[in-house]
Amino acid sequence: xxxxxxxxxxxxxxxxxxxxxxxxxxxxxxxxxxxxxxxxxxxxxxxxxxxxxxxxxxxxxxxxxxxxxxxxxxxxxxxxxxxxxxxxxxxxxxxxxxxxxxxxxxxxxxxxxxxxxxxxxxxxxxxxxxxxxxxxxxxxxxxxxxxxxxxxxxxxxxxxxxxxxxxxxxxxxxxxxxxxxxxxxxxxxxxxxxxxxxxxxxxxxxxxxxxxxxxxxxxxxxxxxxxxxxxxxxxxxxxxxxxxxxxxxxxxxxxxxxxxxxxxxxxxxxxxxxxxxxxxxxxxxxxxxxxxxxxxxxxxxxxxxxxxxxxxxxxxxxxxxxxxxxxxxxxxxxxxxxxxxxxxxxxxxxxxxxxxxxxxxxxxxxxxxxxxxxxxxxxxxxxxxxxxxxxxxxxxxxxxxxxxxxxxxxxxxxxx
Amino acid sequence: xxxxxxxxxxxxxxxxxxxxxxxxxxxxxxxxxxxxxxxxxxxxxxxxxxxxxxxxxxxxxxxxxxxxxxxxxxxxxxxxxxxxxxxxxxxxxxxxxxxxxxxxxxxxxxxxxxxxxxxxxxxxxxxxxxxxxxxxxxxxxxxxxxxxxxxxxxxxxxxxxxxxxxxxxxxxxxxxxxxxxxxxxxxxxxxxxxxxxxxxxxxxxxxxxxxxxxxxxxxxxxxxxxxxxxxxxxxxxxxxxxxxxxxxxxxxxxxxxxxxxxxxxxxxxxxxxxxxxxxxxxxxxxxxxxxxxxxxxxxxxxxxxxxxxxxxxxxxxxxxxxxxxxxxxxxxxxxxxxxxxxxxxxxxxxxxxxxxxxxxxxxxxxxxxxxxxxxxxxxxxxxxxxxxxxxxxxxxxxxxxxxxxxxxxxxxxxxx
Lengths: 416, 416
Prior knowledge:
Chains A, B: This is Galactose-1-phosphate uridylyltransferase. Chains A, B: Its cofactor is Zn(2+). Chains A, B: Keywords: Carbohydrate metabolism, Galactose metabolism, Metal-binding, Nucleotidyltransferase, Transferase, Zinc. Chains A, B: Belongs to the galactose-1-phosphate uridylyltransferase type 1 family. By secondary structure, chain A is α+β, with helices and mostly antiparallel strands. The first copy, chain A, has 2 domains: about 1-60 and about 90-240, HIT family, subunit A (2-Layer Sandwich), CATH 3.30.428; about 245-410, HIT family, subunit A, CATH 3.30.428.10. Helices cover about 25% and strands about 20% of the residues of chain A. Chain A has 8 helices and 19 strands. Chain A has an 11-stranded antiparallel beta sheet, with helices on both faces. Chain A has a 4-stranded antiparallel beta sheet with strand order 6-5-9-8, with no helix packed on it. In chain A, strand 8 (about 155) and strand 9 form a beta hairpin. In chain A, helix 3 (about 190-205) packs across helix 6 (about 315-335). Chain A starts with a helix and ends in a 7-residue tail after the last helix.
């Protein structure tokens, strides 16, 4: 079975600690097993590669009520003339399953490992066990359809309203087969495999035509609308530079033009010099509450070394990141004092900002993780109301120094 | 009592239908009664002007634990070097009362009219009755402190991190003394007074030094974190151009440079020409679902006449806006089919985008209301998760045409 690993052209992300086994789901989507340990390769277990579900090819034409064949309706995106933003319009996602919370509609968990003999046919994982799996989202808001033209057209013939296929890519990364598991409770060795998944997908998707930004992220918690409780993250690959990256690229490019420096590096060094807001560090990574934090709990994590993208991490940096991510999630759960000392399952978003795929300003950017929570206290949430949603003007209910102070209470800064 | 009206220099917003009676609350904040009908002037009722609460002057110094006098701690704002955005840091707001929903902490409703003999002392309205009242927020995220320097300083001495006082202004507008009332159920004559309040505050606050953007808005619904159920709106007056306005000004300015035209006017005319997404109109206003709508329910309302700001509305436009706003709220509540035909209390944000106070690009802007809801269906909410909160990349779960189609089902386009 070693052939599966080596035959997958593992490239710069491969190493002796991880095994990658690719396959295709029944409808044609890409699927990858990532095993924590290559012992699987020489061990008794092989990965089940065949998806038993009788799914149609995902881009198959469909029949209308009169029996006419209609081509696959790809999601489109339109450019908002008032802001310049592209808005993917993901009508297909309206039918996606929800297994968490009061609006739950699905009858099973599609991220679970398949149980032998289980009649449930919507599971996405062919095997009855796994470590980490990655696959293309079945209900993508962006997808590249083979043979489909990416040329823009005009809505109602008006040049104000450009539209074109939302030719991006949406992938799901499952962190563990245990659907009740929390990412904060996973061993560092497993989080190391998750880091590997981020690096692997960044390396591979960067080679795909038309993708401008690769965005690995994790949404955690029903409070922010996570529709599947199973521990997982996502990778959104946009066929455009997303608005927040555009803002950051504009700022870091202007800073470079003005000073010759790298904005993100100078921010990190400024935080190290100030000291007060640095909350964790190890040999490869610095975690700090940014001096102008906008969320009630916000931590940015920057590599010590100058790096643009996740696939540039070396082996040590991958291990150190897994350790840092684990510590960050555990401290996040302990951040709000629940009175009983047990902490809480913190809702959070972990958002990887990395250099865009080909935008010429990429050289002045620098890899960073932006970790934040909407939670303001054990029983309060920050909502994005008029100021944030209507004017994109954030108002913080706390200060960066208060956030950092709480982290300092939770443990030593140096976790290396 | 007519003197109170005329002595208030009513300016361009005054007219024979509205009476404005100014006073000050016990802690020095501005307070205004706006009465639907000047009959009060000659009637038996006068407005109670005296706030009976023993409140300290709001900018009074306070004593620390050792009895030393500390100056009033004004809210500060810091500029995020990574985005260029100013972030007001409103630590004082952490103590604000919450009377709605499970996190409710307050013992009364500060927006209620005072009940004679009521021992509750936190009510903000001196009178036992009112139509509409406006007052400065007791827990503002931005405030102008008399005598306080607005000069920027540096956080930790680092030129990357500018900070200065968040010298803006936050006002509250109560729409009705009935704390159970819904804005959608108010008579058009009352909404006319609310329109008048928007115009009045825009006219007056435009004259205040240091205010760059006046943003009247309404947050409605516990689902979006509204902390007081009482029907009310707010006016945020920013000492900077908020990020979304900056984006819109950049786009409309570039459009003018390129074409000589006004972007917002051409968008409105494009929507009229296309027709499909126009959902309501009367003699003064056009309501349409924008061709690149990002929310599950989104309607923009534009004046027929070229106007920059709310205080430029003439008498007819104010009445027509009240009628349009009423119709919009009613259709919003009927939008999602609840199965029982009764509709729902839709959570929404109504955000007024008007020309900035003095930015030179203001002439190429045009007044518009952006009305939207987070609700996706009777039992689903759109959450702003990784893509929206982390990358500011909105993904729509529907299409503008589907939204417009539902509005068309709910009633005739021409409500004039």
